[in-house]
Amino acid sequence: MPMSQTAIPETIVTESSVAGVSWGAVAAGAVVIAALSLMLLAFGAGMGFSVVSPWSGSGVSATTLSVAAGIYLLVAACLSSTVGGYIAGRLRRKWARLHSHETYFRDTAHGFVAWAFATVITVAFLASASANLAGGAAGGMLQAAGGGIRQSGGSPVDYFADSLLRPTGAPASNADNRGEVLRILTNGLRDGDVSPGDRSYLAQLVAARTGLSQGDAEKRVGEVIDQAKAALDAARKAIARFSLWLAASMLLGAFAASLAATEGGQLRDRSDIET
Questions:
Q1: pTM passes above 0.85
Q2: SS3 of 52, please?
Q3: What does the alpha-carbon distance between residue 184 and residue 195 come to, in Å, rounded to a whole number?
Q4: What does DSSP assign to residue 60?
């Protein structure tokens, strides 16, 4: 007797006509994140300049300002990303007959994509603004110099070059070697230290310009190079700390935008059910 075969019904899976990404909602949330971020950064910069003093011993210390700026970056990223992510989740289109886990994932993805879109917009805007400001500043300096061929550009070691060539009495009447000193210092500090040959040559220039003995000139050269290295190392550490704070704020912003978009999407679906 033949065995009865049970027919297995075929399941037809139909793809929803509604797209999985509501780009309008993502763009709206991204614009809100970018706008709030710029506003909060401008506010934070104004508050920072108000507590910083150019006079030593006045205002907050550099360490306090660095920590306060880092914490403010975290708060600003959290606030702007939360608002923008919530808008991205609340304004997205409703997905019918979709599992709750998939809805949760899509809402989270909407917040994350809105944050990523806002980050790209903000970086592009800041890069364009910085380029325009730099171009305007360069044009203003050239115009102020009367269109001369020699452009006077600022250097981090200008002060240290002045320290090397500072006379003890009346200035010497020999040629000005400041440009050569700047090039020697820039090249040496870029490689990590000034070579012994360059140090000896700098000491000769300093002795001829300032009237110091060769031994005193070599001592001044060593002290100024050490000061320059300490200043560059402090700047490097400050940039590293700022980069870490910025990375932490971006990570927190991505998390806040994703979480807020999930909450916004759930509220939107509940509002549709109630109505």
A1: no
A2: strand
A3: 9
A4: -
Residues 176/179/184/186 CA torsion (nearest 10 deg) = 140
Residue 259 burial (CB count, 10 A): 19
Residues 251 and 76 sit within 8 Å (Cβ to Cβ): no
Residue 214 to residue 199: CA distance in whole angstroms: 11
> pLDDT by residue (tens digit) across 83-126?
999 999 888 887 777 777 888 888 899 899 999 999 988 888 77
Cβ burial, residue 55 (10 Å; 0-12/13-18/19+): exposed
Torsion angle, alpha carbons of 235, 71, 48, 39, to 10: 120
Tokens representing 144 are 């102020």
Q: Which two tokens stand for residue 256?
A: 């806040």
The model's pLDDT over 205-240, given as tens digits with 9 standing for 90+, comes to 888 888 888 888 889 999 988 988 888 888 888 888
Q: What is the DSSP letter of 177?
A: -
Q: Which pLDDT score is estimated for 239?
A: 85
Taking only the tens place, the pLDDT of each residue in 125-178 is: 776 655 554 455 444 444 444 443 344 445 667 767 766 766 665 455 455 677
- Helix, strand, coil shares of the chain as percentages rounded to 5? 75, 0, 25
State how far the Cα of 81 lies from the Cα of 143, in Å rounded to an integer.
43
